[in-house]
Amino acid sequence: MSATLITLTAAQDIQTVRQALLALGHARARWASTAIAACLGHPNMNIKKTAAGVLVRAGTPTAVPALLFWLGHHDNPGLRGTLVEALRAILGDAYPATVLAAAEHSEDGRARELLLAGLDGTLSARSVLALDDQASRVAPTLLALVATRHVGLASGTVEDLSTALARHGITTPAAPSQGTDRGADVDIRSLTTEGWNQPAALRLAERHELPHPTRLRVLRPMLPDWLRLAGSEPAVRARVLRLTLRLCPAPWTTEELTAFARCTRVLLDGLEGLAEAEAEAEDRHDLIAVLEAVAPMLPTVLKPAVAEVVRALPAAPAGSPGRPSTLTLLRSLGAVLVRADLEQALASARLGADPRKAETAVLRDSFAAPQSPQSPQTPQPPPPPQSGAATASAKSEEWRAALDVAVRTPSALEEFRRRCRKHDGIPGSRDRLTALIEAYASAAPEVRAALIDWMTDIQPLDAPPWTIAETTHAPPPRPRTVHIDDLDQPRSTALRERLLAMLQASAPDRRHTAAVALLEWPEPEARLPVLRAFLHGRVDVPVDADLARALSALGETELRADAILHDRVALVAGRLDPCDLEPLVPLLLEWWEHDPPSSSSAAGQALRRVPGDVLAEHLGERLDAGAWGFLDLLVGQSLLRTPALQQTCRRLRGEGRDDLADRLLLADGPLRRPDSVRQDAAAMAALRDRAPAAPTGASQPPSRQELLDLARSGDPVRIRRALTRLAEGHGGPDPDRDPACGT
To answer: Basic and acidic residues bias: where (predicted)?
Structure first.
């Protein structure tokens, strides 16, 4: 079943791909993480978001490179929120360090900025200053994002970074007027300290200039109250919703999406009100993004009503490519796109800043058409004329050139289409559809409706690609020519040698390709070179338990080499089982003591995974010498009360360090369950009542007197056995006359 679903993720039909992804996510098919991550590159935004959402539940470290790539190359807020959620689910506490490392290695300034924007609310002011002190490549960009409030700080303020900002020549944006600032601060403080206050909320919403979103973040937990206010005050609903979307931007938690879903009617009324008031297009796009996010949570009976409201909206300027649109929202609601939906989206695209580009993007999204492999403005050199592909390419170019001429008048287009029905050698349906979409923007206005009719005949809206006849009669693909340097051949010694040579290449992408390929080999010997390259900083790969276990093959001498990065060794050691960490404790302690903070913090995290008693034993000599700083590694752990630790506590109290001594948790022996005392008593009773061992000689049956004594004083089991033997030994029907039986 999983193999079939993985195959369907590469299908042409968008709905098939989406349902296959949802099924893999429902099954938590972590083994399909690579196939799911590949769908992040799908041209349809709905598929991108679905794949990112599935990786939240079924993602593995193999999906991290794809998630980081799209986080650095896409600015859609809904998609970015899901990408961040998936990365946090996979990486856990390593999320900030991984994103920073990806930004460090990025050569594209825009990609570095988008990656760092994913750290909103994650880094503290001290962490940003530490990056600047280390002369990190990302420090200037990160400081600029923090100064402009595009990245919020987890703790600290922008004023704490004033020295670093001045050193890089970065100025913070001018603050709003003092009067506006003071009034907004009073209302925000009233809401946060005294609880929900409707008059204060209305004053804040009715302000002409809203406070910056970073100042409104403290009001985010009151989202249900703001939505109720928008529903109860129709006169100011648009302003309240505008403020609500500023204080609660994407990404949204499950609880926040549930609150939005409960107020769908309020959101729809607000969307209609924004259309009537001709408000800013940004507010409309934000509301559409919220509705698209909550669409999967809406009841089935409510979705057609929402789709009807969306279809009734007037045209408005379209957002930048990748922003939510009415088409993606309708698909999320399960509606089948019709010609009127396409016309509405095209009308909105014409109102944007770049109509030609926006119209082309709408048509590609509507018909799920691939982008042309070559730009019309940049002709590619033709293939050799001897090949059949050259002939087909030449005919395709001739057809495209004739189409560009035909789109000038309706009669010319009609004549051109009539000729296409009679002659062979025209391009396939996918190429024709792509060419028609590219010609639409430059076509005459009276020709555009006929072009859409032609596109619809080739590919109906929201239908799978109509290519059955083409694929049935298409010639089979030529057999692949196998080359000796192919990397997808069966594992062999020759392939291993090629991968090892690639691992030493000067190009980073070749080293990364070789490392990823070697990590898929099951042999531990294949992972060891990758680990060495990782520890030397030549490659960046996710560290899992299998790669970490290869660390035991490296000796202490090799780990102490100058080229080894200590923080990476500590990172790998942190993935080991606590019992496997003990041989590395002396080395980690040395690095924790002498290395700079960037390396010592990683060593400290690895040392805290070592059992406390083992770590205390290794610290014995240092504690005897009075190096109390090492006690930071022991605080908070339950330690066995040993004479050495008791002596340490006495010395601390003698030096007046009672606070440090109180932080050491000493236990008297191994910790035991609450019912251990009762179990011990039962065990001792069983030992006392155990019958004496039988003599080595032949056993003699008990006498009559012994059986009588046992029947009077034994436990129920022995009494029953004694009475049975007495009954078996009695002969005759008369009762036993022995006086002892009556007493």
So the answer is: 727-743
Q: Do 587 and 556 form a contact (C-beta atoms < 8 A)?
A: yes
Strands 665-667 and 638-640: parallel
Rounded to whole angstroms, what are the CA distances from 725 to 536, 689, 711, 722, 743? 82, 21, 10, 5, 18
**Residue 488 to residues 168, 199, 483: CA-CA distances in angstroms?**
47, 67, 10
Long-range contacts of 408-414 (CB under 8 A, 24+ apart): 408/443, 408/444, 408/447, 409/444, 409/446, 409/447, 410/444, 410/446, 410/447, 410/450, 413/447, 413/450, 413/451, 414/450
pLDDT at residue 467, as a whole number: 63
CA 309, CA 545: separation in Å to the nearest integer?
52
Which residue from 359, 324, 334 is spatially nearest to 445, judged by alpha carbons?
359
Locate tokens 């531990």: which residue?
Answer: 524
With contact defined as beta carbons under 8 Å apart, do 504 and 512 qualify? Answer: no
| Paired tokens of 357 | 């580009």
Neighbours of 301 (CB within 10 A): 7
Q: What's residue 381's pLDDT? A: 44
- One-letter identity of residue 319: G
Cis peptide before 251 (omega within 30 of 0): yes
Model confidence pLDDT, tens digit, residues 622-668: 888 888 888 888 887 888 888 888 888 888 888 888 888 888 888 77
Q: How far apart, in whole angstroms, are the C-alpha atoms of residue 359 and residue 346? A: 6
**Maximum distance among all Cα pairs of the chain, rounded to whole angstroms:** 133
**Residue 98 main-chain phi, psi, to 5 deg:** -70, -45
Rounded to the nearest 5°, which phi and psi values hold at 325? Answer: -135, 170
Return the amino acid letter for 36: I
Distance CA 386, CA 149 (A): 60
Q: C-alpha angle 358/362/368, rounded to 5°?
A: 140
pLDDT in tens, 171-227: 776 544 444 455 677 888 888 888 888 888 888 888 877 777 777 878 888 999 999
Place of tokens 């989202």: 223
Q: Which of 42, 35, 50 is nearest to 83 (CA)?
A: 50
578 class by beta-carbon count within 10 Å (0-12 exposed, 13-18 middle, 19+ buried): exposed
* Whole-structure pTM value: 0.45
For the chain, how many residues are written?
Answer: 743
